[in-house]
Design brief:
Elements: E1 4-9, H1 14-25, E2 30-34, H2 38-41, E3 43-47, E4 52-57, E5 60-63, E6 68-72, H3 86-106, E7 111-112, H4 115-121, H5 124-133, E8 141-144, H6 147-156, E9 161-164, E10 170-173, E11 176-179, E12 183-184, H7 187-190, E13 201-205, E14 209-218, E15 222-227, E16 249-252, H8 256-269, E17 273-281, E18 286-292, H9 298-304, H10 308-316
Parallel strand pairs: 1-2, 1-6, 6-7
Antiparallel strand pairs: 3-4, 4-5, 8-13, 9-12, 9-13, 10-11, 14-15, 14-17, 15-16, 17-18
Helix pairs in contact: 1-10
């Protein structure tokens, strides 16, 4: 029996729109909460009497019984009164977050994904440890705030290393917001290796790529989309420097061991969905880079023509 689906998203989320359109075509009952509008447009209630949450907007209210599955797509900070004191704004935000966490952690139906599992899974270092213990290839990696360790690592790989953030970030500058991408470390930068003492930093062996792969994995599927980032000088080091006009995307058949690894990592972290990044090296090896428990995938569908929406949505109604 197909489940009903609650979607927790934000107003401009094209992923949520694509899945909702698919569910409507299948005539699957669904309900979307635009989470930043929680205080303005929705009513949420929980009672210890029946242990059930309800959600309502205008003339419609749903009871979140186990017949509902929840897609925890992206919960945003709620809009609140701008004239409110800062401390009170922070209190409002905290209370909303605790309410969502309570719902998602206690719900008896499927939740894709529960916040505690998302938190558990969102560590690059633990992911690499799991991958290596599972027999997968992963780039040689260090995290250090010791300049000498960085210099030794640089020499070990003959200068072929890159710098990554352990957590993606947008940095505000006078010129506007900037994203920190993966970057190769230059000899000139190594002259300032002492700067690494400012905070622990992650460095990896740089793997020469044939192409990159994003794998969209659910409980029952693992679909690989090849990203031919080497077709463009712009995207060679990090495909997130998108050059969509010149970089090809296509679905590929994944080896059994890679599919099994994705499945086992999802199970290890208690996830029902995840987006995996791999490198397919010049030597024909699959190198695991990271798992994003709530990764983007719609642009892969648009560029490759492969229907990922169906796989994500079908997983929500099972």
């Amino acid at each position: 029996m197909e489940k009903k689906v609650l979607i927790l998203a934000h107003s401009d989320d094209s992923h949520a729109s694509s899945v909702r359109n698919y569910l409507n075509q299948r005539e699957v009952e669904n309900f979307t909460v635009v989470t930043e509008n929680l205080l303005r447009d929705y009513k949420i209630n929980f009672s210890s009497w029946d242990l059930i949450y309800t959600l309502g907007e205008k003339d419609r209210t749903i009871e979140l019984t186990p017949s509902w599955n929840i897609w925890n797509r992206r919960i945003m900070i709620p809009d609140r009164n701008k004239g409110m004191p800062k401390d009170l704004q922070e209190l409002v935000i905290d209370e909303c977050e605790k309410t969502w966490d309570g719902l998602l952690m206690a719900h008896k139906g499927k939740v894709v994904n529960r916040p505690q599992n998302h938190f558990y899974a969102n560590s690059k270092l633990d992911q690499i440890k799991f991958a290596l213990e599972s027999g997968m290839y992963a780039p040689d990696t260090i995290v250090t705030n010791a300049p000498n360790n960085l210099r030794e690592f640089y020499e070990k790989h003959e200068g072929n290393i890159c710098f990554k953030l352990q957590k993606g970030a947008v940095i505000r500058t006078p010129e506007g917001n900037k994203v920190v991408y993966t970057n190769k470390v230059t000899e000139e930068q190594m002259n300032n290796a002492s700067l690494v003492s400012g905070h622990p930093s992650l460095f990896q062996e740089y793997i020469d790529k044939e192409f990159e792969i994003r794998i969209v994995a659910t409980d029952k599927t693992a679909t690989g989309i090849a990203i031919h980032s080497q077709d463009s000088e712009i995207s060679k080091v990090d495909y997130r420097r998108y050059d969509l006009e010149n970089v090809k995307y296509n679905s590929i058949e994944l080896p059994k061991n890679v599919r099994n690894f994705c499945s086992s990592m999802l199970a290890h972290y208690g996830l029902h969905f995840g987006a995996f990044d791999f490198i397919y090296s010049k030597e024909g090896k699959y190198f695991f880079l990271e798992l994003n428990p709530n990764g983007q995938w719609l642009w892969l569908e648009e560029q490759s023509g492969y229907n990922l929406t169906k796989e994500v949505a079908d997983n929500l109604i099972e």
